[in-house]
Structure formats: C-alpha cells, structure tokens
C-alpha cells in the first residue's frame, strides 16, 4: 500500500488533492490505450504530453519526487478536452486527475508564469483575454437587463469579450419568438477557467459571485451558448455547494431553441448545402448534451446533414480549455482544429456548425475560407 503523500504549506501538513483521485492515477499510469486520441500529445509529439506520460509524472509526484518545471509544464499542457475518455474502457477521468494535480501545484506556488498571468486577468478583469470589462457585450448592451424576465441569457467569457455575434444571434431568436429575456449587465466570470487552472479557492469565490448574481434575477431558465458556463452551472456549483433552485432549468441555447421550436411550431428556411456539427468537449463529452443541435439542423437541412467521422464522445477537441502550451498562452487553435477540417473536406462538407465561440474561431482559422462556419445560435436565428 502506498504511503499517504503530504506536503508542507505554510507550516501546515496538507493532504494532496492528487490523492483524492488515486484510483484514476493507479489505472492511468501505465495504460497506453488512449494515446492515439490525445489532442495535446498528438500536437507536440512529446511522450510527456500523452495520457500515460502524464500519469507516470503524477505517480512520481505522488511517490514523493519533486514537481520540477518539466513535470509542471506537462501537466499544464493538457487541453482538458476529455478525448482520452473516449478510448477508456474503465471510464477513468484523467482530466479530473490532472485538475487535482494542478491544485497541488498551485498550493506549492509552482505554476508557470503564463498561468499566473491568466489568473491575474481572470481576477482583475473577469476574462483570460486581458480585455477591460467595459468592453464586454453585456455592459455595452445593458439595455437588455430586465427584472421581469423568464429567461436569463448568460454570455460567458468567450462570447462576452470576443464573439458578440453569437450573443446577438441568440437575442434575435428571443426577439423573433417573443421570449422575455434578460442579461446581467456586469456579468461576472463563473470561475470555470480558474478551476481548470488549479485555483480552487479563487474559483469558488468567483462561482459564489456568479451564483449570487444569477440567483438575484429570479428567472425560470438559465440559457447560455457557452459550454464552459453550462458545465460550471451543472457540475462546479454542486462541487462548491451552490444550489440553483430546482425549478430553474439550466439549458444550452440549442436545447432551449429546440423546445421553443416545437412549442411554437416554428417554420425554418430550408438549407441546401452539405452541413455538419463539430461537437463541444464540455457540452457533449462532459455532459452528454449532443442531440438538440442535431435535431434542429436535421429539421432545417434534412438529408444534407452529415456526421463527421469522429463525433460525440469521440469528437476531436475544439480547444475550449486549451489555455497553455510549453511556457506560453496557447495560440495554436488553428493546428488543433485542422483534424476537424480534414475530415470535413473528405466528406465534402460546405458548412460547419460549432457549439462555442472558441470552436468557431479555431475552425474558421483552420478552414481558411473552405467552409462556412457558424455557431448554432447564428444558424438557427438566420434560418427563421
């Protein structure tokens, strides 16, 4: 039996977060079965960036070997996409194990400088992009804040600071279908990125601020186009002990739009180009929210809808949590999305529907003008 590994933090004997997921650690440290699926490993081709390499690194740390800079770098190189889960017969959640290791790294103040900069931006400005909050979509459109609304639309970081067009498309849908909705003008960060980077206490504090803002709105439905927000509401809130009223439904925009389209018997314009969907890691892989977008696209495009070779749980990563690589903020989303585009070309796809702002950005860059790329909210709103 392995002896408990502990470390000293400010003179206090502390049990490692890593130890809480020892079952995963024991299973993953020697297993190579998901190597071919790893997004970051197949980008860098470094053995330490594949799941087994990271498993061995974490096992070494668990046994008492110091977490040196190379080890730390490998553990932050993971994109937390969950592709490894698709090839795991035991359903061992390696990203959860890596998140635990990152908490220990943060507690030892060993995280890379680039990660500390991301944290600084999240704490000071509420986003990883370094953009001032007064430039956000929600603050620039505070006219949409409404205390008498049934639906609260939550933008999330990527859309609130980089992809206004997705929020605008969602709002057009609300307007066309006469949905009473609201936004939070000074929408705070939900804490998901902080949690994934290993800043557990800071993530909980951010989630609490977000929870208080959301709870104050007294709405019946929480709707977002951002998979990270959905994952935070469904999973992180439970972990942190924040209980959204059970009568409030948490929904991705695609789920909400599907319900409204059926209830209101909406008529859509027909779409005559070959079309597919690039699944979201945090929506489809993590939360099994895969079907609503497909239902709507099939309703609009009919037989023109074609699945990619790898989809749902086995879909390629789109980069939703690709924050870091080898000492710097990750900026190679184009390379990450090339695999999706290569499959789309083989299938003669003309239009790719994405489920997040990050996915749209990366696939657009990788497609280099060969495809039309739209977020699901844009596609639905344009088809009404």
CATH topology (level 3) name of the largest domain:
Rossmann fold
Helix content class:
40-55%
In the predicted model, the low-confidence regions spanning at least 5 consecutive residues are 1-5
The major sheet is characterized as: 4 strands, parallel
Which word captures the global form?
globular
Instruction: Determine Rg (CA atoms, Å).
Output: 21 Å
Number of domains: 3
Distance between the termini: 62 Å
Instruction: Give the percentage of residues in beta strands.
Output: 5-15%
- Can you identify the CATH class of the largest domain? Alpha Beta
Q: Strand order of the main beta sheet, please?
A: 4-3-5-6
CATH architecture classification name of the largest domain: 3-Layer(aba) Sandwich
The average pLDDT is 93
Order of helices and strands: EEHHHHHHHHEHHEHHEHEHEHHEEHEHEH
Question: What class would the helix/strand composition place it in?
Answer: alpha/beta
- Number-wise, the strands total 11
Number of helices: 19
Summarize the structure in words.
With 384 residues, the protein is of the alpha/beta class. It folds into three domains: 106 residues, Fumarate Reductase Iron-sulfur Protein, Chain B, domain 2; 146 residues, Rossmann fold, CATH 3.40.50; 116 residues, 3-Layer(aba) Sandwich (Rossmann fold), CATH 3.40.50. The chain is 48% helix and 10% strand. The protein contains 19 helices and eleven strands. The strands form four sheets. Strands 4-3-5-6 form a four-stranded parallel β-sheet, with helices on both faces. A three-stranded parallel β-sheet has the order 7-10-11. Helix 18 links the parallel strand 10 and strand 11. The radius of gyration is 21 Å and the shape is globular.
